[in-house]
Structure prediction request, 388 residues.
Amino acid sequence: MNVLVINAGSSSLKYQLLNVDTREVYAKGNCERIGIEDAFIGHEEMGGEKQKLVVDLPNHKVAAQHVFEILSKLDVKIDGIGHRVVQGAWRFPESKVVTDETLGWVREVAPLAPLHNYAEADVIDECRERMPEVGNVVVADSSFHLQIPEYAHRYALPRDVVDRLHIRKYGAHGTSHRYIWRMTDAFTKHETHKLVSCHLGSGASLCAIQDGRDMDTTMGLTPLDGLIMGTRCGSIDPAIVCYLERNGYTNDEVDDMMNKQSGLLAVSGISSDTRDIEAGAADGDANCQLALDMFAYRATYLVAAMAQAMQGFDTIAFSAGIGENSPETRSSICKRLEWLGVKVDEEKNKVRSGEVRDITGEGSKVRVLVVPTDEEYMIALDVQELLG
Ligand code: ADP
Prediction:
């Protein structure tokens, strides 16, 4: 079955056309700077060079039209389309086939993720118009986290406010954490029961997964909470927001500051990219070293919280851009967790590979894995299950 996976960001639209059975990727790309000047599409086909196509992309619908145009030249029949929806809220406890009703739900919960959900809903409209014979599936990033017990997902705010505005911990990266669990379970031949899944990319979150059930996660109502990220501050005292606003910052300015000007970028003062920061720290830049230390400290602080959600942990899995590619970060996190029985094998930790691998050190009480994530494949699997 050939599945087109579409992931609309606030100003981008990523796509990947793959075969679910063989895992062959025919083409993938990203429409960037949608709604901004100098928009372009970075497109890549199997065995081909990456191309940059300069086009006008006034909105996501037009971007989707370009994607269909490009893919039509490939001569690959699309059998189903999977849409990553950031916020499914209470409406999507699992992935669902798109109907008028379910598409309405994507828009109904959009106030909780306005930059993403409306864009993806427009793309779904375009797909249904363009290819009425092909089924669409919504895969919400928040679905997995709806399993989190109430004592862990509820905020201690007034009940009427929380209930009226649907405020709770929804989390994100749920599709990735679900995939990391699946791969870990298979790799350890069902020996893992209590997994701390670490999705460490430019956005980052942890998830406590006990025998496949999501027990807690570090992101909250929005993806701003929890770990320190590339440009997001993660958990801070919520009173800081009020303090900033009383000091003249507007609500939009605070929102922008916390999401786009904070995190590793703010602390290092040079970049949001761990590669640059690691290079800076190696050259003796104290702010870069501090950024790395803060990132690792917060990560371990929250690993302990995830372990508490399961009364312990037997496996920790590192994934996404930083988790898969930075042996320094993995080592720094594991060393800080040694008092909990975590030991990493430094030689195995250095090996680069795209495979699931075990980097557990001798005498470790916790299995340490690197599990490359593949959200597109996980989405395509859901499409196959619902439409195949
Ligand atoms: P997202 O999908 O959230 O944009 P990714 O999972 O692709 O993020 O992660 C991107 C981040 O991964 C980069 O910003 C960078 O910090 C980090 N990264 C990628 N490669 C490396 C590497 N070799 N060493 C350290 N960090 C890396």
Observations:
- Residues 201-203, 230, 273-275, 320-322, 325-326 surround adenosine-5'-diphosphate (CB under 6 Å).
- The longest helix spans residues 286-309.
